[in-house]
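Hi there,

I know you've been waiting on this one. I reran it after we fixed the sequence typo, so this is the corrected version. Both the input and the resulting structure follow.
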Amino acid sequence: MGKLIICNGKHAFIPFYFKITNTKVYSVEELCYYIYNNVELLNEDFFGEALIQWLKDELGLEDRADKLREIKNNKGSLKEFAVSILCSSDYYTEFEIKGFIRNLDEQVNLSPYEKLKKKGDNCLKYRQFAEAAAVYEKILDGEEVTSLSSEEYGNLLHNLAIIKLHMVGIAEAAEGFKEAYERNKNPESLKQYFMALKLSKQEDILIEEAKSYGVTEVLKEEILVEVNTSLEEAEQTEEYKIVEEFRECKQTGKINQLYRIADELINGWKQEFRREHS
């Protein structure tokens, strides 16, 4: 979990799994650490019945589980849930918990739009692309969209373009970045647009659009350098090496090896899909 955590309580045989971050916790200390360092992920669904039952069954914290269920039945606040768990171990000091409460209060006081946007951003951060897209589209289809500034609207389109890059294709993402820039005027959206054009081999359009938007030679050079660096980094990944091996087997007629690699790729995609949609 990124830090040595000394656990004085019971260690669970079955961990509690947080889907969005793909994290498993085995003790109340690890749970406290997760809550403390992921305040932006806390919502009404976080402290659900599954977590309460896990504390009771796996960690033997029956009194704590009963307290949380009482808070739930009384429609208690996120603060009550979080503090109740943080106070169930000595992992954090009173001073640290007060600091956590201040951070949590800031989140609770966000506007409905800000809360939804943050939820979408967190899903995107942890590669929950379908969930992130659903949140962003909910904002764009909702009544509050009329109160968004052009920049805020464009930023949503920018993030949707990132999702298209992963789920649909580079060409579709390019259009999304272009539309985002038309609204937010953010140089990063424009840069991503030109990078997508370069990666999708739309060189002619790139040249025309560069002239249309008045892109300097310096910026074009930066884009080319970043694209080439990204490609070099991609070539070092295991996924790229597997795809290259697959291509070589197909060209040389190594059928048995080809099927083996195909099975590995498909199983990997299945596991990723299950993780994102379970």
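Quick highlight: Residues 255-277 form the longest helix (23 residues).

Best,
R. S.
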